[in-house]
Each structure stands twice: as C-alpha cells, then as structure tokens.
Amino acid sequence: MMRVVFPVLAVLGAIVVLWYLAVAPMNIRVALDTAERAGAEIVPEGSAVRRDVSVWRLMAQNSEHVALGYALERPRLPTPQQVGQELWKTTGKMVQRGRAWSKRSLIYHGWITLQSTFWGFLLGTSMGILGAVLITHSRVMEMSLMPWAIISQTIPIVALAPMIIVLSSQVGIEGRGVPKAIISAYLCYFPVLVGMVKGLRSPATAQLDLLKTYNASGAQVFRFLRLPASVPYLFTTLKVGIAAALVGTIVGELPTGAISGLGARILIGDQFGTPLAIWSALFAAAILAGMLVTLLDVLQRLVQRRMGGRV
Amino acid sequence: MLSTDEIDGFAERETLPDVVIDARDLSLTFQTNDGPVHALKDVSLTIEKGDFVSFIGPSGCGKTTFLRVMADLEKPTGGAITVNGVSPEEARKARAYGYVFQAAGLYPWRTIAGNVRLPLEIMGYAKSEMAERVAKVLDLVELSGFEQKFPWQLSGGMQQRASIARALAFDADILLMDEPFGALDEIVRDHLNEQLLALWARTGKTIGFVTHSIPEAVYLSTKIVVMSPRPGRITDVIDSPLPKERPLDIRDTPEFLEIAHRVRDGLRAGHAYD
Ligand SMILES: Nc1ncnc2c1ncn2[C@@H]1O[C@H](COP(=O)(O)OP(=O)(O)O)[C@@H](O)[C@H]1O
Ligand SMILES: [Mg+2]
Q1: What ipTM is given for this predicted complex?
Q2: Distance between CA atoms of A171 and A174, rounded to whole angstroms?
C-alpha cells in the first residue's frame, strides 16, 4: 500500500510546489501595480515602464512585494489555496446555504455540462460501436466509412462547434442542449470507433477456427467471440470517450451566447477578467472527468470479475 | 504386394459407410513470400470407423495441415478427400467432428462449464440437455467440481482436458486432436493417454491424433501414420497388432518395442531423403 501511496503523493506534492513557485513570477506585475497604487515605491516606477523589465528582475528589485502576489484579488495565476477556496465557495458553501441550483453555483453549471456530456457520450459511443461493428463486418464498409471517420477528426472542433450551433438553430432546434450533445458526440465517437474495431478484431485465428469447426454463423461469431473479446477494449475506449465527450460539451459551451455550463463559466471568467472563476471552473471540469472515469473503472471491474478477470 | 483379397476389400470400401476419411493423392502447397511450401504432397490414406490413427513425424511434415484439411480449415490444392463419404466442408457443416487444438484455447471469459457448453449453445441444444451433457463430459475427463472455475484457475493439463470435453460435448463421431498433450509433462501425459484410450473404447469414436512422441503413438493407436517433411508425405502406415485393452505397462512388451522400432525406422528413412 505504501509503495503506491508514496509515489502518488510525491508527484502531487511536486505539482503543488511547482505551482506555488510559479505564482510569484506570474503575479509580480499585478502585485507591483497594486502596491504602487497603494502608495508603495516600486523600481522602476510605472506599469508601462515595467512591461519591458523581466519578471525575475522585478522580483529581485522589489522582493518585499513578492508575497503580495499570493494574496491578490484578481491574480493572473491563483494559488492552489485560492482555487480551493473559490471552489468551496461555489459548491459546498452554496449547498450549505441551500442555493446549490443558483446561477452562481458550480454544481448547477456542472449539472448542465454533465447532462450534455451524458447525451453526447451516449450518442457518440452508440455511433462508434455501430461503426465498428459495420467496419469489422465487411471490407466494403471499412473502405466507405473509415476515410470519413478519419477526415472528421482532422477538422478542428473549435471551428466546427459554432457552425453546429448556428446550423441547429437554423433547423429550429431551441437552446444549446442538442448542439452541445452533437459536438460532444463528434469528439467522443472516434476513439470509441477505433478502439472497438481493434477489440472486435482481437480474436486470434485459432479462436475463430474453433467456431468454424462448430459451423457457427457470422452472428454467432460476433456474439460468442468478437463481442466478449472486445470488452477490455470497450472499457478503455469508454474512458477515453467520456473524457472526450466532456471536452466536447465544454467546447460547445464556449461560443458566445451560452450562459450556463462549465464552458460558459470559463468564457465569462475570461470576459470579466476573473481568473479565479476560470480556474475553479477548470478544476470543476477536471473533477467531473475524474468522477466519470472512476465510475467507468468501477463498472469495468465489476464486469471483468464476472468475465473471469483476475482483478 | 497386396493380396487379391485386400484389393477386393479396398474396392469395396469405397462404397462402405465405415470409411471415415479417404484421402487420394492429396496435396497442399502454401504460397509464401519465400516461395511455395509443399505442406502435403500426394498423400493417400484411408481411415475406418473406430480407428485410432496417430500421425507422427518431425515438425513441419504437414501433420497439422493434414488434420486441418480433414476439418475443412484448409483447402487442398490437389487430390481428393472425403470425410464420412462427403466433402470436408459438408462434413464440417454436418458437425461431423470435434477438433482439439494444440493449445487448449479456452475462452478466458467463460467458466469451464461455459466453455464446454459453447458448442452446444451454438448448435442450439435445449437448456436441460446442455446441463446434462456438460456434466457428463466433465465427468468423463475427471473435471467434475471445476464447472465454475475460470480457465486461468486450472493447470495446463486440466485446461487441455476441458478442451477435450468441449470437443466431446456434442455427438460427433470423429475426434481430431492436434498434439493435445504436447505441452504437458510425462506423468500427466501418461494419465491422459490412459483416459483417452478408455474414452475411445467407451464411445467408439474415430480418432485422428497428431503427436511427436513414438511411445504415445504406439500406445494409443490402431494405425500409425509416419510422415516426413519437405514435401510433407506419408512414409509408412503401420497397423498395430496390440490388443484393444492396453495397460500402461504394455509399453515394456516385445510387441510394443517392435512397433516402436518400426516407427523409428520410418522416421529415420524420412530424414534420409533430405
Ligand atoms: N498458413 C500457412 N502458410 C504458409 N505455410 C504454412 C502454413 N501452415 C503451415 N505452413 C507450412 O507447412 C508446413 C507444414 O506445417 P504443419 O502442417 O504445421 O506441420 P506439422 O504440424 O507437422 O509440424 C511447414 O513448413 C509450415 O511452415
Ligand atoms: Mg503441428
């Protein structure tokens, strides 16, 4: 147990330490501006002049103000502690005050994002699995589907997302829910497709020969061999897929106009110059992704235990 | 020289239903990047109902290929072969044989019972009959009590026995086995050989059995087919005079050693052609 816990904690510790170290240079300019406004003497004087001086020099020349960078109201880079506090303020504290569903609560925005992620994931994995089944079923299908699947992934999603939103409103779809799910599915289906093609093709020739000796039909080969053989691939693939679906949803919430969802929070934080809001929304998204992947991991363990896995 | 009697018998056999495998001038050439590989060349052999036929020869002499041709897993490039009087494909579609592969090849996501039940599920047996048959064949290979275990929980020998049970679960009267005990140690092998003989006596199946081991071939077979490589062909067919009842210590009798000697000579002669 210790052998696992120690490296995990060591890596986590290193990240936190690096983060804290990065806060000083990242925030020094804002800190000096703030201090100057409060009447302190800064070398060199004036924000415009300091723009040409390196952060290292500023830190060396004004070392007494470096600490201020760790307590700014609008930091360029907030400290982990500030992010933690902001997260608590917008989640746990909201719950305590009975305002979990207020527009200021990340629980509300997280829930909006989660819903679209869920529908996008459902749509994306269905498409991915269906595509994989068709592709493994016949060579012709592979030749007609696979190029499109690959081309679809060369189009940057940020370019496509606004178009999907505009086009879906053209055909009379109200709100952001549906286009968000489509964008989410668009990102999610490809890893599922690729992973499942690999999984469905994973049976060895000997395993296929065995079924041939039983004169099994194509559908039976699929049901008794290809499908169960693909299960480990399926779960690996679903974990990648759900993360991609979440990213897709957030991207779908970024184009102007969205007001709810974690993506919208990031955008609004950017527009109003509140990095703390951006960072806490980012962390909320990461935590959400972590929870979803963990959920799938638990499901995988349960299924694989039933299927004779050694876990 | 064949006696007239034997020639008559041979002519008659074509029409008799008790010829299970009839191969005439069978050839199979694999086209590979390094040129053609003559895995089988002009192989002729007749196997009768109830025979226990061993195929023995150095590796690469086409034993597996021959068995796979009988099973319709490989198409011959020349000559003719019938299985139960029809083409191998028809025989396969009629589920005429059970095949035991060199590696047990159990599906890791199925329990032992689940693996044995696999052919029955595919062939659409009724639920109750499946359970009955699985119990019966697992008992036959002495694996009762391991139904709910997964393959990795069993030793290699037990896995191989489960794969034999799987081939026995449905009513094929031919059993094709490709070095089923090749990877097992001597003692386990002896034990499985005994069990296999008992099973053969009980079921009256026709068995084609590939092996590397001379004692194994002599101990088990009513007919020993000696093969040699490049090109793969038959160098000798020995009809065993040993009785059907064979305790393990029959291997120390002069008759046994005499046949073993002839097999060894056949193998050596095969090599001399190189
Ligand atoms: N699918 C294949 N493609 C090409 N060559 C093959 C194939 N299968 C077998 N061979 C070749 O045919 C020959 C006979 O193989 P095999 O029947 O497996 O021999 P054995 O079972 O007696 O060891 C070998 O030279 C082998 O390399
Ligand atoms: Mg072989």
Answers
A1: 0.86
A2: 9
